[in-house]
């Protein structure tokens, strides 16, 4: 497999450090709110990268953190009148609900920053001892000028980085780009005891400490959105490598932005849509297919039309699967070898699917191959006599493997026959009652639950109508 390594700016053969095992770290959410669909893109893309590596027989140790202490967490908890731990618990649970619905497989480990304070403090102490960090007034800063390779990920010098960065003026720092490893407690903030007084960790040190704990001092892959290249990932490299003297990450991969009206989607710009809101209108399968319809390093533009197209594409995939199952259930009178044409096509497409996935995770190309298979299967099923049982079995195996990687058909492990008609009608009654009681949160939850299971609700002047997506 070849992956584009942002550290070297070229595609490279991906060879794990430990044969048969991949150590993979992905930056997770700051849990102060529901994650938006811009965040959903890296979660889905790197879920697919992990799935493909596992399909090839590799053991993947997949670590995705939760940032559960920082300025955003503190400010949001104050707004809501709750504690930071209560806020974190609420939105970690919400993350799992939304991620599970989108078919994002659970990480091997989801470490929380607040549960790794001893490891963080130990790493900061190590940096001070080696002359890479300094304490001032209870704060501890990393001194960027002591790390000769600072800027090697973003490919910029200290001067270039300084001119392009938003930097708070702090005369206590030795260099404007020096960044906080430990922050002294301010009145009313959560804190932990440390050699420098009560305080809390800086954002960057959390990921380095947790990655080293679970993956060792050198890991295979570190992934995240392209907005994290600087300062977050640049700082992770500096502090980890300054402490250990070893390469921190061998392959850095970053996804392109999700755009809304051709602008980057972000909470700071206010042009965002949460994954939870999006699931009220579109199925998780359609959302996944949309996210994978462009190469992960390219930007992708969100629109209702693009999601409607993705919905129609998912329907085509699932209709093919249903037809394939019906054909398998019908004994074929075909002579042996009658399915040779389909078998040969499936064999050819299996190779092409792997080629696309191994070419820097080209999910757009892999989806194209999957739809070629659908065309071939549909064409074969229209033939008289139909394909033999062996060729149908091979076609089924191809679709199962493709979906095990992409997760856009909803078969295999994600199979759900859907609710019965009676269950749907009962849910609609519950939703109607919730709306009358002005419990719109419950009404939305029922709608989202049914959509996840393939049932679309439509509110009309005559009442609520429903239909199955398949």
Assigned CATH class of the largest domain = Alpha Beta
Rounded radius of gyration (Å):
25 Å
Specify the biggest β-sheet.
4 strands, parallel
Taking strands numbered 1, 2, ... along the chain, how are they ordered across the largest sheet?
4-3-9-10
Return the structural class: alpha/beta
Number of domains: 3
Based on DSSP secondary structure assignment, what is the total number of beta strands?
Answer: 15
CATH topology of the largest domain: the name is Rossmann fold
Spatial shape: globular
**Strand percentage, roughly?**
15-25%
For the residues shown, what is the average pLDDT?
A: 92
Give the name of the CATH architecture of the largest domain.
Answer: 3-Layer(aba) Sandwich
- First-to-last CA distance: 35 Å
Name of the CATH homologous superfamily of the largest domain: HUPs
Order of helices and strands: EEEHEHHHEEHEEHEHEEEHHEHHHHHHEE
Unreliable residue runs: none
Q: Please count the helical segments.
A: 15
The percent of residues in helical segments reads: 40-55%
Which helices and strands appear, and what pairs or packs with what?
Blueprint: E1 2-5, E2 10-13, E3 21-26, H1 37-55, E4 59-64, H2 71-80, H3 84-101, H4 117-129, E5 133-136, E6 139-142, H5 158-164, E7 179-184, E8 199-201, H6 203-215, E9 219-225, H7 229-244, E10 249-255, E11 258-260, E12 263-264, H8 275-278, H9 284-292, E13 300-302, H10 304-329, H11 340-358, H12 363-381, H13 389-406, H14 421-436, H15 440-452, E14 455-460, E15 463-468
Parallel strand pairs: 3-4, 3-9, 9-10, 11-13
Antiparallel strand pairs: 1-2, 5-6, 6-7, 7-8, 11-12, 14-15
Helix pairs in contact: 1-13, 2-3, 4-6, 6-7, 9-10, 10-12, 10-13, 11-12, 11-13, 12-13, 14-15
